[in-house]
Amino acid sequence: MGSFVRSHQERWDGTGYPDGLAGESIPLESRILTGADSLDAMTSDRPYRDALTPDEARAEVRRCAGTHFDPRVAEAMLAIIDRWGLLAAS
């Protein structure tokens, strides 16, 4: 698999794994994959918890922007949540 799959558990602040990459050292594809995977996990029901509401997911993305998530990817995630929230409310 591509190196971007290997790096999708890296965190923007460097506390992720497997290589401890940080910031722009993390491949962009990995940063996007992290955001997509995280957003899916937040907004999906799990056996141990219900899916987060759009407002709860928005707050979690904001909280983790600049630590877990690339701030630019977090902004894109927020735009997706806003769009999803509007569609869900229809």
Shape: globular
Based on helices, strands and strand pairing, what is the structural class?
mainly alpha
Give the helix level as a range of percent.
Answer: 40-55%
Q: In DSSP terms, counting alpha (H) and pi (I) runs of 4 or more, how many helices? A: 4
Tell me how many strands there are. Answer: 0
Average pLDDT level:
91
Give the biggest sheet: none
Distance between the termini: 39 Å
Task: Using the CA coordinates, give the radius of gyration.
Answer: 13 Å
Weakly predicted, low-confidence segments: none
Q: SSE order, as H and E?
A: HHHH
The amount of beta strand, in percent, is under 5%
Written account of the structure:
The protein is mainly alpha-helical. Helices cover 54% and strands 0% of the residues. The protein has four helices and no strands. The longest helix is centred in the last third of the chain and has 19 residues, at 71-89. The N and C termini lie far apart (39 Å).
Topology of this protein?
Blueprint: H1 3-6, H2 28-42, H3 54-64, H4 71-89
Helix pairs in contact: 2-4, 3-4
Short description:
The protein is mostly helical. It contains four helices and no strands. The protein starts with a helix and ends with a helix.
Which structural traits does this protein have?
0% strand, globular, mainly alpha, 54% helix, single chain, 90 residues
